[in-house]
Write a structure and sequence with these properties.
single chain; mainly alpha; 2 helices; about 95% helix; elongated; about 90 residues
């Protein structure tokens, strides 16, 4: 059983090493350029996600604010009704 596990681990390590080697051979650009390009893409995705999150937070705030205003309006109406009933 242990022998089988070590074979799997060895195969995985050989596969990772082969993948790294092939990647280095067929890479379209130098490592520094690739890292810069990757960083730029990641930052773009992060900015896009931040903008999307900001929009959702603002939408939630405005929906909550509208709901809060509606509730206050209903409370004011209820208070007015109670005052009318007490005044009679």
């Amino acid at each position: 059983m242990a022998n089988s596990g070590s074979k799997v681990l060895l195969a995985a390590l050989v596969g990772v090493a082969a993948g790294i080697g092939v990647g280095m051979l067929i890479a379209p650009a130098k490592g520094s350029k690739t890292r810069k390009r990757l960083k730029k893409r990641i930052m773009g995705i992060a900015d896009m996600m931040q903008d999307d999150l900001s929009e959702k937070v603002n939408a939630f705030k405005s929906a909550f604010s509208r709901e809060e205003q509606d509730e206050l309006s209903r409370e004011e109406q209820w208070v007015d009704e109670v005052k009318k009933k007490e005044g009679k």
